[in-house]
Amino acid sequence: MKRLSGAVTAAFCAAVLVAGGVGVPSAAAKNGDTHITSIGSVQTVDCNNATLLINGAGNTITAVGSCWAVTMQGSGNTVIADNVVNDITVYGFDQTALYKTGDPFIVDRGRELGMVNRIDRIPA
Fold this sequence. Notes:
By secondary structure, the chain is α/β, with parallel strands linked by helices. The radius of gyration is 21 Å and the shape is globular. The protein has helices at 6-20, 109-112, and strands spanning 34-39, 42-46, 51-57, 60-75, 78-90, 96-101, 105-108, 118-121. Residues 8-27 have low confidence and may be disordered. Strands 1, 2, 3, 4, 5, 6, 7 and 8 form an 8-stranded parallel sheet that branches. It has one domain (34-121).
């Protein structure tokens, strides 16, 4: 068996690392994600290019700026977002997620289980 020199081995490893990252998305988690856990809250928040996570019931959240993603859990929550970049994910029932701009991927886990949610683009 032929042994490779240290320089050749290092060059090979570097090539594998560079090639291995092609087409792989970077992680989108960001310090500053906004978590709202409440019942009956009415708030306006700045998404700051991060993820907005709402958990509870009867909350009405207005998200200004650009959100990386919006995730909702619970029931009867309403989110009105200026812009959603990546995705809107809704768990639960009777949820409303409205967004003005962006082309987010929509995941409606409640509807998959027979529950009714509303996810729509609205005029800016």
